[in-house]
Amino acid sequence: MKFKRASWAKPYAVFLVLFVVLPLVLVGAYALYDGDGNFTLSNMAAFFTDPKFSDSFLLSLEIAIENTLICILLGYPAAYILANKELNRSAVTALLFILPMWINALMRTMATAEIFAVLGVRYGKGTLLFGMAYDYLPFMIYPIYNVLQKMDPSYAEAARDLGASPSTVFRKVTLPLSLPGVMSGVLMVFMPTVSTFAISEILTNNKIQLFGSVINEQFNNLMWNQGAALSFMMLIIIGLTTVIFGSEESVNEGGLV
Q1: Interatomic CA distance for residues 159 and 149, integer angstroms
Q2: What is the DSSP string of the chain?
Q3: What is the CA radius of gyration of the chain?
Q4: Which of 15, 61, 112, 135 is most buried by its number of CB atoms within 10 A?
């Protein structure tokens, strides 16, 4: 008995319906109804009217932007060195950046918090940014590294043959060609940073409450409708950001072909 190719997609379709579409429908349903089952938009409106929600979201955006910039500043040079055969001649170096990812992120965060406690470092925004950069830096390095590694060296060679200096080759050739990797890294760092809550709770002793912590608090207090509404708003914002960055990345990639 022969199976059509389309039949192999059916299990994945079932999986998507059960674990992607259905949860989203439930979140939307809880967000648009109150505890008594009455339709309401007050849960969604609270995102804009309640200072606790709006302020925590703006703070999350601030932390996410700062963490993303830190990861770019640290990750791009690291990716450049890893991809440059003259600067990095050992495959072990790349493995050193992968090793921390083999450990559970929560365990890494708790270990970082313990190091700060032993050193007597006060918890705050600095410890939070350090922990986030530590956790998400590999997600910035590897997209950039993959793009740089696959880059055709003939472009840089042609620029050097035409008399361009090393700095000019980097600004005019290497950096523009590596932008799709940078954009992918931004997505992979910015998105989870906006919605995280465990890292902020551990590395600030819950002194800094990000938007993810506020959502978690709603569910812990059995305020399912309000928590679902905030989650739904977060989903919309992340979706719009992904579309915007994704379209820019497609344009960049299209312009490089």
Answers
A1: 18
A2: ----GGGGGHHHHHHHIIIIIHHHHHHHHHHTB-TTS-B-SHHHHHHHH-HHHHHHHHHHHHHHHHHHHHHHHHHHHHHHHHH-TTT---THHHHHHHGGGGS-HHHHHHHHHHHHHHHTPPPSHHHHHHHHHHHHHHHHHHHHHHHHHHS-HHHHHHHHHTT--HHHHIIIIIHHHHHHHHHHHHHHHHHHHHH--HHHHHHTTTSS--HHHHHHHHHHTT-HHHHHHHHHHHHHHHHHHHHHHHHHHHHHHHHH-
A3: 22
A4: 135
Taking Cα atoms as reference points, which of 228, 217, 215 lies closest to residue 25?
Answer: 228
Tokens 């648009």, residue? Answer: 32
List pLDDT tens digits, range 51-100: 999 999 999 999 999 999 999 999 999 999 988 877 776 667 777 777 87
How many CB atoms within 10 Å of residue 166? 11
188, two tokens: 């992979």
pLDDT at position 256 is 39
Q: Which fold has domain 47-256?
A: MetI-like fold (1.10.3720)
